[in-house]
Specification:
249 residues; Rossmann fold; 10 helices
């Protein structure tokens, strides 16, 4: 592990993830953490984090970003003490809360997502993973109606506490508080990388949750499983109807 993106979700983490990938890093974002390491994370949620667990999980990975990894940034740094930490924030707590709530509303209000979480194997596993991630992040459970919490006071307090903790507990030489508007130079200087000859990315800027920027592997998997269930059910119904018609005839 070389880089820990300690930023909360909705703080430009997808842009920063893409920056690191352009610079040649292997990055595990929310998508990879669920799809490849979901079982390990569920064990962490249940039993607690350990240096040994994180060392095993990320021994061949260069960087992590987004939830749930950002919540465990300090444990990750204990496991990989030579790693550097990057923190991005929003202009204000209100701006972050508004952005979080907009994404939460799109997820909580998605009927397709609710169906996939109820009827597909990956969807059911993801619903449990997301619930435990939210509990670890905000120390509260979502309501039965909301997969992602939207209590403004809790959101703001946890956002503030998290950012303060990262800045206060990280050695100055290990930390970059990064403004995405500054572009490549401060990021590359911090990572001792040459500035690439490509435009600075701006990923997931008000993108729909099901866009290719957010969790492409997850949603492709959910779509495939739901399509299989619908197709299988349709075939079974057709066979039953056919046999019933034969019996009537």
């Amino acid at each position: 592990m070389k880089v820990i993106i300690a930023s909360f979700a909705k703080c430009g983490t997808k842009t920063l993830r893409d920056c690191l990938r352009i610079l040649g890093y292997t990055v595990y974002d929310f998508d990879e953490n669920f799809m490849y390491l979901g079982d390990e994370w569920m064990e962490i949620f249940e039993k607690g984090a350990s240096v040994e667990m994180f060392t095993k999980m990320y021994k061949n990975i260069d960087a992590v970003s987004d939830l749930p990894a950002c919540v465990y940034w300090q444990n990750l740094h204990e496991a990989f003490p030579n790693s550097k930490i990057i923190l991005t924030t929003r202009k204000s707590e209100e701006a972050w809360t508004k952005s979080w709530n907009e994404q939460a509303a799109s997820i909580n209000g998605s009927k397709l997502f609710q169906i996939q979480c109820a009827f597909t194997p990956t969807g059911r596993k993801y619903a449990r993973f997301l619930k435990e991630t939210m509990k670890a992040t905000f120390e509260c459970s979502p309501t039965s109606f909301d997969v992602i919490p939207r209590h403004d006071d809790i959101l703001r307090n946890k956002y503030r506490e998290h950012n303060m903790a990262v800045q206060q507990k990280t050695p100055n030489e290990k930390l970059l508080v990064f403004n995405l508007s500054d572009g490549w130079k401060p990021l590359c200087n911090f990572l001792d990388k040459d500035v690439p000859d490509v435009p600075f990315p701006h990923s997931n800027k008000r993108s729909p949750v099901r866009s290719s920027h957010v969790a492409p592997m997850l949603f492709r998997c959910l779509d495939r499983e739901l399509l299989f269930i619908i197709s299988f059910t349709t075939v079974i119904i057709a066979i039953l109807i056919y046999n019933a018609c034969l019996y009537i005839i």
